[in-house]
């Protein structure tokens, strides 16, 4: 794996995803939910980019825009040299072959009436990549890759445990040999003792198959463990983006600092020495976000200028990006 | 001083597939003013254990199959679940905070109505006094504009605010013990930090004991003084928080600690060591140790003899295992 090239697999520029709120008989638009509000980032080849934030911050919406499951309001998503946000609906399937997705809920994301083998084989059929014997061979291969017994191919999802079901989801995501996989909270529905099995599997697969991950999760400890770089989102915007160890050792944005300090570490000795920043209030609504910096009403460093203009995401050195005028 | 002494409680469920021993001989003590943690994965019986203490398990299918809960010199399990003695304690001297603040508040009653109910019932307050006390409680748990918001309905509150209302309700009758069942699982981490700091602050100030039931090892490490680790309906290790985290002696506890990523570890620094296999199905369990199929430390004796009782391996440190691993 050669990471020195820094070759970009995806470039997201000024991505916006607004969901309209409509009222009345004529479905008049009265407001927008600004789920993703003008964000830009790159994903480098063979890396894991973590996307972390609290519920409602727009991390899942970002993932879905990248997969073109949503048509973004504006902005561009350049994947393998093509802006997939402009590709017409009927042609998008050709580009989606190269992307996989693993969903959070291993119960809801698998058809309960379909056999595991057929679930895993479906993407191959949809993309006309394999049929008949060849399809079966590939499905067996996929089962083996993710550590499932191919003899269980004919069973239906409810016969599997949560961890095994997530493995089926992973096998399905790998079916078309994609280069980029969007992992949307892939472990948060699993038991603590099973989570590590899935994290290790994802890491091994990345090594073996040279995959690139966009890893979306709310658990910063997990994100930090698996990611090379991490982007912290708050109310539809990226607040900070940097190398995962730099984010922990040298967090710059006040929100990142608060987020880090809010996460309890399973080590009582370390806990005694940590400073805790308890944020006041709650996350405002994305329908009517605060002006200027979205975080300023809860920020301890906020000054008058913070409420006047949106702080740009600027590089403070070594590809450490932060959107704050106070640091 | 031991406030609550839970001895060997057993709660079984009779299901159409067989007998489920959800709590199979669970014992723990709660001392005055301390915070203890009951940790385990889903289905390990941690919620059932505290619901059994409160006698909130419906029967059938649940069955009180034995044990004692000694509180103020009396065995609570001798009382009938809905008898006057139990009702006088539940919600007053021993209270609960539930996980899901959306479903544990009644959606068609105002917050005022739900908060004053316990005050009128247990403390014999009249309507006016109860309302004043309720507003005071809401202020104490940090609900802004409490005197106006008290007349709102639960859906008008956010998740974090609803959980604050639950905390206010649990504190309303100056309880001696609060059981918090996964109190912050449904909320975001910054809200979790707000709520836990608030709870810790309040119980310290009011000298109340707090039992936090959770699967989050970080939460117990941060707040609990003593910890009980559960697996498949039993307590398999117990001790002081520092001892359990620094010198775990049961293979399951060791496995659990090795399998979670810790914040601050560099990317790629440590590979997680998962516990292989899956948690057991509790229906018709064999008499041997339930962790046996997943255990990496097992010896010949484990498969032949029944699940061992808790034994002391240090000061206030107990494990239920034939093997004793020292250090990590």
Helices, strands, pairings?
The complex is a heterodimer of chains A (327) and B (328).
Chain A: E1 8-23, E2 28-44, E3 48-52, H1 59-66, E4 74-79, E5 82-83, H2 92-96, E6 99-102, H3 116-126, H4 132-145, H5 162-174, E7 180-184, H6 192-209, E8 212-217, H7 220-226, E9 229-234, E10 237-243, H8 244-249, H9 254-262, H10 268-273, E11 314-315, E12 321-322
Helix pairs in contact in A: 3-4, 3-5, 4-5, 5-6
Chain B: E1 2-15, E2 18-31, E3 35-39, H1 46-53, E4 62-71, E5 74-75, H2 84-89, E6 94-97, H3 111-123, H4 127-140, H5 146-149, H6 159-171, E7 177-181, H7 189-206, E8 209-214, H8 217-223, E9 226-231, E10 234-240, H9 241-246, H10 251-259, H11 300-304, E11 311-314, E12 317-319
Parallel strand pairs in B: 3-8, 3-9, 6-7, 7-8
Antiparallel strand pairs in B: 1-2, 1-4, 4-5, 9-10, 10-12, 11-12
Helix pairs in contact in B: 3-4, 4-6, 6-7
Give an overview in words.
The complex is a heterodimer of chains A (327) and B (328). Chain A has 2 domains: 8-98 and 178-322, Rossmann fold; 112-177. In chain A, the strands form 2 sheets. Chain A has an 8-stranded mixed beta sheet with strand order 6-7-8-3-9-10-12-11, sandwiched between helices. A 4-stranded antiparallel beta sheet of chain A has the order 2-1-4-5. The model of chain A has no long low-confidence stretch (mean pLDDT 91). Helix content of chain A is 30%, strand content 24%. Chain A has helices at residues 59-66, 92-96, 116-126, 132-145, 162-174, 192-209, 220-226, 244-249, 254-262, 268-273; strands at 8-23, 28-44, 48-52, 74-79, 82-83, 99-102, 180-184, 212-217, 229-234, 237-243, 314-315, 321-322. Chain A is globular and about 65 Å long. By secondary structure, chain A is of the alpha/beta class. Chain B is globular and about 70 Å long. Chain B has helices at 46-53, 84-89, 111-123, 127-140, 146-149, 159-171, 189-206, 217-223, 241-246, 251-259, 300-304; strands at 2-15, 18-31, 35-39, 62-71, 74-75, 94-97, 177-181, 209-214, 226-231, 234-240, 311-314, 317-319. Chain B folds into 2 domains: 2-80 and 177-319, P-loop containing nucleotide triphosphate hydrolases (Rossmann fold); 100-172, no CATH class. Helix content of chain B is 31%, strand content 24%. Chain B is an alpha/beta fold. Chains A and B meet through α6, α7, α8, α9 and α10 of A and α7, α8, α9 and α10 of B.
């Amino acid at each position: 794996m050669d990471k020195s090239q820094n070759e970009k697999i995806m470039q997201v520029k000024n991505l916006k995803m607004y969901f309209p709120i409509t009222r009345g008989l004529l479905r008049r638009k009265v407001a927008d939910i600004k789920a993703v509000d003008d964000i830009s980032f790159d994903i480098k080849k063979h890396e894991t980019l973590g996307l972390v934030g609290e519920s409602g911050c727009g991390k899942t919406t970002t993932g879905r825009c990248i997969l073109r499951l949503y048509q973004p309001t504006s902005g561009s998503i350049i994947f393998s040299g093509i802006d997939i946000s402009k590709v017409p609906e009927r042609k998008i399937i050709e580009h989606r072959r190269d992307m996989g997705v693993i969903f959070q809920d291993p119960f809801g994301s698998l058809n309960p009436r379909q056999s595991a083998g057929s679930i895993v084989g479906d993407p191959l059929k949809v993309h006309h990549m394999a049929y008949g014997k060849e399809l079966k061979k590939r499905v067996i291969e996929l089962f083996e890759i993710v550590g499932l017994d191919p003899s269980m191919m004919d069973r239906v999802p409810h016969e599997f445990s949560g961890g095994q079901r997530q493995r089926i989801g992973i096998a399905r995501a790998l079916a078309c040999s994609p280069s980029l996989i969007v992992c949307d909270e892939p472990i948060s529905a699993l038991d603590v003792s099973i989570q590590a099995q899935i994290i290790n599997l994802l890491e091994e697969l990345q090594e073996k198959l040279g995959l690139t991950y966009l890893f979306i999760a709310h658990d910063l400890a997990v994100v930090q463990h698996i990611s090379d770089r991490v982007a912290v989102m708050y109310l539809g915007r990226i607040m900070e983006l940097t190398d995962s160890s730099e984010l922990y050792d040298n967090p710059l944005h006040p929100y990142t600092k608060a987020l880090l300090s809010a996460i309890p570490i399973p080590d009582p000795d370390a806990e005694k020495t940590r400073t805790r920043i308890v944020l006041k209030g709650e996350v405002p609504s994305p329908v009517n976000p605060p002006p200027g910096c979205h975080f300023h009403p809860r920020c301890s460093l906020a000054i008058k200028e913070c409420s006047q203009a949106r702080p740009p995401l600027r590089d403070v050195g070594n590809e450490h990006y932060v959107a704050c005028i106070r640091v | 001083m031991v406030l609550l002494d839970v001895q060997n409680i057993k709660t079984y469920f009779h299901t159409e597939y067989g007998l489920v021993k959800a709590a199979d001989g669970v014992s723990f003590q709660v001392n005055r003013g301390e915070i203890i943690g009951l940790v385990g994965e889903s289905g390990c019986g941690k919620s059932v254990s505290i619901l059994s203490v409160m006698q909130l398990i419906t029967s059938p299918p649940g069955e009180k199959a034995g044990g004692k809960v000694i509180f103020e010199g009396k065995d609570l399990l001798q009382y009938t679940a809905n008898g006057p003695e139990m009702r006088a304690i539940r919600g007053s001297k021993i209270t609960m905070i539930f996980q899901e603040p959306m479903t544990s508040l009644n959606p068609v009653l105002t917050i005022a109505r739900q908060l004053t109910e316990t005050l009128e019932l247990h403390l014999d307050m009249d309507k006016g006094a109860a309302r004043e006390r309720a507003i005071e409680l809401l202020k104490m748990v940090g609900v802004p504009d409490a005197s106006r918001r008290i007349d709102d309905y639960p859906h008008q509150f956010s998740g974090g605010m609803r959980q604050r209302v639950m905390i206010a309700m649990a504190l309303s009758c100056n309880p001696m013990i609060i059981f918090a069942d996964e109190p912050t699982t449904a909320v975001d981490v910054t809200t979790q930090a707000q709520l836990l700091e608030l709870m810790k602050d309040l119980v310290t100030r009011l000298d109340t004991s707090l039992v936090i039931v959770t699967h989050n090892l970080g939460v117990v490490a941060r707040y609990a003084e003593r910890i009980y680790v559960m697996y498949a309906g039993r307590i398999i290790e117990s001790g002081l928080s520092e001892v359990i985290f620094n010198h775990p002696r049961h293979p399951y506890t060791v496995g659990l600690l090795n399998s979670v990523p810790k914040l601050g570890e560099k990317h790629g620094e440590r590979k997680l060591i998962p516990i292989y296999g899956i948690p057991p199905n509790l229906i018709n369990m064999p008499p041997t140790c339930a962790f046996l199929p997943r255990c990496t430390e097992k010896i010949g004796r484990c498969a032949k003899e029944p699940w061992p009782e808790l034994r002391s391996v240090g000061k206030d440190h107990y494990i239920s295992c034939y093997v004793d691993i020292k250090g990590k």
